[in-house]
Specification:
- The protein is mainly α.
- It has a domain of about 140 residues: Orthogonal Bundle (Tetracycline Repressor, domain 2), CATH 1.10.357.10.
- The protein is built from 10 helices and no strands.
- Helix 5 crosses helix 7.
Length: about 200
């Protein structure tokens, strides 16, 4: 009969997320993880498998808690406001991140995952969720007139994804509110229909 686990699995997973997020995959050792999580190496392996498996579990949890939750909240707003809220929260998190950790997902996308098809698929799918959110908002906004028709919804979504990634990467070295807000505001202004501004 298996012994019950003597730790809070959610709490130790939170600790693992923090460790991978701040150090990156390659720079994080099993010893680092066990120390941060407050468990033994044996307990780590028994509960989560090896380092790679724990990283995948941590990244999935991060995506669900940080990304999917934000999409769900923002999607209840009018289209252009939803985009502004989403990007505004990204800037807020970036400028208040004292350790300049960036976004765990974006970090993984640009440098932080091993050559592993499953992990790459996870990162690609998560970025696809963001792009799909922007696309839905662009489509809805073009229908209600709050977003200009001069670009397709697909092009708008890809552009906004690029803005998001750029903000997150830039913020790691220059977490300056005026700089990051200026980038976002320029992207939002580009969504406006000039004819509606003159009305």
């Amino acid at each position: 009969m298996a012994r019950p686990r003597e730790f809070d699995e959610e709490a130790v997973l939170d600790a693992a997320i923090g460790c991978f997020w701040s150090r990156g995959y390659e720079s994080t050792s099993v010893r680092d993880l066990a120390t941060q999580m407050g468990i033994t190496g044996a307990s780590l392996y028994n509960a989560f498998g090896d380092k790679r498996s724990l990283y995948e579990t941590s990244l999935r949890a991060y995506v669900e808690r940080r990304l999917i939750d934000r999409i769900r909240r923002c999607e209840t707003l009018p289209p252009r406001q939803a985009i502004a809220q989403f990007l505004g929260e990204v800037v807020q998190h970036s400028v208040t991140d004292a350790d300049c950790k960036g976004c765990m997902l974006i970090n993984a996308a640009v440098a932080g995952i091993p050559e592993d098809p499953a992990l790459r698929a996870l990162v690609t799918a998560a970025l696809g969720e963001i792009e799909s959110f922007f696309r839905r908002m662009a489509e809805h906004g073009q229908r209600d007139g709050s977003i200009a028709m001069r670009s397709t919804a697909d092009d708008i979504a890809r552009h906004l994804l690029g803005v998001l990634i750029g903000v997150r990467v830039l913020a790691r070295s220059r977490p300056e509110p005026a700089l990051l807000n200026g980038i976002v505001q320029t992207a939002l202004t580009a969504l406006e229909d000039p004819a509606r501004r003159r009305e």
